[in-house]
Amino acid sequence: GEGEGSPAAVLEELHSAGLMPHRMLFSVSIADEAGRIVAGTHPGNGASIAGMDYFENARQDDRMIVGRPRLGDGEWRLTFSRSITDSGGAFGGTVAVSVHAGYFVSGYEADVLGEHGVLGLVGRDGIFRAMRTGDSVSAGTIVGFESLVPDDIIGSEPTTRIENSPWDDVPRYTFTRELFEYPVAIVVGLARSEQLAPATDLQRTYLWRAAAVSAVVVLLVAVLGGMGWQLQRARARVVDERIAHARQVEYMAFHDNLTGLPNRAYFSRTLSDEMQRVKRYRRRLALLFLDLDRFKTINDSLGHDAGDELLQEMGRRLRESVRESDIVARLGGDEFVILLPELSEPGQATTVAEKVLATVARPFAIAGQEFRVTVSIGVSLFPGDGEDEQTLMKNADVAMYHAKEQGKNNFQFYSEELNTDSLERLALESSLRNALAQQEFRLYYQTKQDMTTGRVTGMEALLRWQHPDLGLIAPMQFIPLAEETGLIVPIGRWVLYTACRQNVAWQSKGMEHLPVAVNLSARQFLDDNLLRDVAGALNESGMPAELLELEITESMIMHDMPRAIRILADLKALGVRIAIDDFGTGYSSLSKLKDFPVDTIKIDGSFIHDLDRSAESMSLTEAIIDLGRSLSLTVVAEGVETAEQVEFLRTHTCDQFQGFFAAHPLPPDEFTTALRTLPGHSERVEPSNP
Ligand code: C2E
Ligand code: CA
Ligand code: CA
Questions:
Q1: How many beta carbons lie within 10 A of that of residue 554, not counting itself?
Q2: Where would I find the H helices in 387-487?
Q3: By three-state DSSP, how is residue 412 classified?
Q4: Which of 243, 250, 369, 634 has a Cα at 20 to 30 A from 527?
């Protein structure tokens, strides 16, 4: 019935107490002792679940039951259930929570687990409740539970073993952890082919990360376990701290640690469900995509802690500027989104955007300093600006970029024209096109130095655009556009010719013969004329080929490996050196490194930056140095800013370093001046570790 104490009333009560798991992710139903559904968050009253394994098993067993996976509407679903006892203590029915199986393995990241790894949840009955490898999610595969979780390790510390997975025979490092209170275990595996044998430290790092992924699953199971319990208690009208605990656990799985806002996983699920709902009821919703202006500058100048504090305060302010029913989430970095699920007219989105701009504009007091930040906002509407969640997000993002181009600190609605042929973009593109003819590009040079002697070992050429109105523009602001439009090819050619010419000019003035490194973009690397351009730059300037080093990134070679190997072999045949830039950021394919003819690896600055605060960055840095050593490569650390970082790298026998600690990138004349002040450029200095 509908009266007080009825199942429906209990659900309602749990809901108003904020104790129900989110209805967009979970559906909850209560069945009576005959298996007839008497209440639920989703339609289905009156239907019978008698005969279903999760009902029948709950009848026998008062612990939590993890039902067998079922396929419905093309998606695997899992149902967790547990029995409810009636006032006399007899079986009074079940409470069941159903959720997409894919959700449990949504923590699978290709970066961490590779394309052939595995993340899964397996029942004690040996049936996989969810299993993911690469992008493919499955369920129902049957294996022997004991083969995955041998008796002797049940309940003990998780161990790692290498063996062929019984379901697909792929050799993997497998790691299994039983969830003590529940009849399931987490399986995490890394394909051996995607692992690098020499870098054992690196492997350990991966496994730690994988363990973090499985923690999410552990949390989810705990939440679901807590649910049935909550329901029984709510019936008895007893609420104690265990409920608070269960809520806390659920909260952690769906929220961003830093700001406490919903995270990306939660948001994308919410968005697609809200879109379904809006479609059904012929309503509209708006999506606001926010990106802080100049956040990187703040982070760089005030430090990460201040940056974090700013993001937290930002989260609070955004939350304040919207209604309770609106959803604010943090996607990562300095990107936030706001979903307005109940829009009566588009003007409402304008009101919210204006309010957000005003709220953000209030000064922030952080790290004893008062400063202001602004935000750029892009708005997309549904229906209209995208049929699915990804398109709607992408278009809000496009509109946000438009807001940035409009001078930041404003909002823009998405429109068709924005997508490809916006006038502003055309203007930027044509000024970029002219920049070459107008001779607006400059090359700055930054030294690389020997780790022990401090001696300058070479330099890297870094591109700048001296824009007539906008001033000096950093490469990250225009290289993506240059890359997209293909302009990077002639610009890159100019860089090659100029760097070689400058190098020879310096030599003819009596400067020591130092190698110069030039960055290549993806498009340049794949350009058919690359070889001709490199040879041309060397011939025209007369620079010896061994003084030129070309910097490419891992992703460029991984894209099409056979082709990359051919290009690299051709370049090597000219006599130039090859460096892998930003090393460590695309680490899923490290194992392939030995197949490529490279001379140098440059450890990405982000690891160096975090050396003093992250054990993981430390072990990765060490592992990369070891890896470089084992392959006889020169290892260069980038972004070195402090004496402590130098010390660490020196102790771990890194070969060279580059960074603000020694020198900033400088225009040619200042570069030569700076060289004179650096140790060991032409005169030898004493090694600091004799
Ligand atoms: P990159 O190749 O990783 O270059 C290193 C970047 O780190 C440079 O930024 C440099 O100024 C900066 N940097 C150097 N030392 C430090 C330090 O101690 N701390 C910090 N925080 N940063 C440091 P920049 O010059 O803005 O260049 C950014 C990126 O643009 C480069 O990253 C490279 O990927 C690209 N790029 C630069 N010049 C060219 C070019 O001529 N062609 C192509 N295709 N890409 C280029
Ligand atoms: Ca570089
Ligand atoms: Ca780099």
A1: 23
A2: 389-405, 416-419, 423-437, 475-485
A3: strand
A4: 634
Does any ligand 1 atom lie closer than 6 A to the CB of residue 581? yes
Counting ligand 1 atoms within 8 A of each CB, the residue from 462, 502, 670 with the most, and so the one to mutate, is 462
* CA 135/CA 115 separation, integer angstroms: 8
Q: What is the largest CA-CA distance in the chain?
A: 99
Residue 609's closest CA among 601, 597, 621, 598?
621
Ligand 1 atom nearest the C-alpha of 495 is: 41
**Cis amide prior to 383 (ω within 30 degrees):** yes
Cα distance between residue 46 and residue 40, in whole Å: 10
By alpha-carbon position, which residue is closest to atom 23 of ligand 1?
639
The Cα–Cα gap between 94 and 71 comes to 21
Query: How far apart are the CA of 658 and the centre of ligand 3, in A?
Result: 10
The structure tokens 């058919």 sit at 528
What is the CA(447)–ligand 1 centre distance, in A? Answer: 12
Q: Tell how far the Cα of 449 is from the centroid of ligand 3, in angstroms.
A: 15
Mutating to test ligand 1, I would choose from 297, 519, 551 the residue with most ligand atoms within 8 A of its C-beta, which is 519
Ligand 1 atom closest to Cα of residue 443 = 41
Cα–Cα distance for residue pair 207/113, rounded to 1 Å: 9
Which is the closest atom of ligand 1 to the Cα of 300? 21
Q: Where are the alpha helices (DSSP H) in 101-199?
A: 101-104, 110-113, 145-148
HSE-CB for 91 with a 13 A CA cutoff: 18
Q: 277 pLDDT band (50/70/90 cuts)?
A: confident
Among protein residues, the one whose CA lies closest to atom 46 of ligand 1: 519
Strand partners, 30: 39, 95
Who has greater pLDDT, 90 or 215? 90
| Nearest protein CA to atom 13 of ligand 1, as residue | 639
Give the atom of ligand 1 at the shortest distance from the alpha carbon of 640.
18
Report the C-alpha gap between 480 and 690 in whole angstroms.
46
**Nearest ligand by distance to the CA of 475:** 1
Residue 335 β-bridge partners: 291, 332
User: What's the CA-to-centroid distance between 455 and ligand 2, angstroms?
Assistant: 20
Measuring CA to CA, which residue among 482, 437, 475 is closest to residue 581? 475
Q: Is 681 strand, coil or helix?
A: coil
Evaluate whether 210 touches 112 at the Cβ level (below 8 Å): yes
Q: For the chain, what percent of residues have pLDDT higher than 90?
A: 37
> At residue 238, does pLDDT exceed 50?
no
Q: Which two tokens stand for residue 351?
A: 């009101």
Provide the token pair at 44: 């289905």
Amino acid symbol at 413: F
Question: Does the C-beta of 462 come closer than 6 Å to ligand 1?
Answer: yes
Structure tokens at 400: 């946000």
The rounded Å distance from CA 584 to ligand 3 centre is: 10
Token output for 581: 């830039």
Q: What average pLDDT is seen over the chain?
A: 81
C-alpha distances (whole Å) from 457 to each of 504, 534, 654, 679 are: 16, 22, 14, 11
Per-residue pLDDT tens for 146-191? 777 665 444 444 455 677 888 888 888 777 766 655 677 778 777 7
Atom of ligand 1 nearest to the CA of 446: 14
CB 179 within 8 A of CB 186: yes
DSSP-derived 3-state class of residue 176:
strand
User: Does 241 have pLDDT greater than 50?
Assistant: no
Nearest-atom index, ligand 1, CA of 641? 18
